[in-house]
Amino acid sequence: MEETRVECLRSRGFDFTDVVAWGLDLPVVDLYLRYHRSLRMGMEVIVKTRMSAIKGVRLIWDYQICSADGPDLYVTGKMTLVAIDREKGKIMRHLPPELRDRDALEQLSA
Questions:
Q1: Is the predicted pLDDT of residue 98 greater than 80, yes or no?
Q2: CA–CA distance from 24 to each of 32, 66, 84, 87 (Å)?
Q3: Can you tell me the distance from the alpha carbon of 108 to that of 51, in angstroms, rounded to the nearest whole number?
Q4: What is the CATH number that goes with domain 2-108?
Q5: What percent of the chain has pLDDT over 70?
Q6: What are the residue ranges spanned by the domains of the chain?
Q7: Over 27-80, what HEC string results?
Q8: What mean pLDDT comes out for the span 91-100?
Q9: What is the pLDDT of residues 44-62, one digit of tens each?
Q10: Cα dihedral across residues 7, 46, 56, 102: positive or negative
Q11: Global pTM?
Q12: pLDDT tier at 97 (50, 70, 90 boundaries)?
């Protein structure tokens, strides 16, 4: 799920190294998973992700883990990240302008 989130951001012009250079971290503060059916070791799956909402400094992501060769849904999830000032170690009051002013970030939640 982490890899798909990072790749989704990269596809919209946000490299995680940029996020670090802006002086912030985006730790997971909430995670919900629902298992719909069992996966077996070695099964090929597709992990789908999209940003579903931006609420202040919280970025909310939705996930689906599906079979690679059919419509089977194995896991759904929701994850919340929060912007943390790396230097102060505290939750930021606002997203940095580099994130807040980018149309691409808003498109992730469309």
A1: no
A2: 24, 32, 5, 8
A3: 5
A4: 3.10.129.10
A5: 90
A6: 2-108
A7: CEEEEEEEECCCCCCCCCEEEEEEEEEEECCEEEEEEEEEECCCCCEEEEEEEE
A8: 80
A9: 999 999 888 888 889 899 9
A10: positive
A11: 0.82
A12: confident
Tokens (6 digits) for 28: 């997971």
For CA atoms 48, 39, 45, 3, give the dihedral sign.
positive
Type of residue found at 38: S
Spell 46-62 as b/e; 16+ CB within 10 A means b: ebebebbebeebbbbbe
Structure tokens belonging to residue 76 = 């759904």
The enclosing H or E element of 25 equals strand 24-25
Token code pair at residue 85: 């000032």
For 54-93, how does the pLDDT look when each residue is reduced to its tens digit (9 = 90+)?
A: 888 898 999 999 999 888 999 999 999 999 999 999 999 8
CA 82 to chain centroid, in Å, comes to 10
Residue 60 · residue 26 · CB < 8 Å: no
Tokens of 61: 């992501």
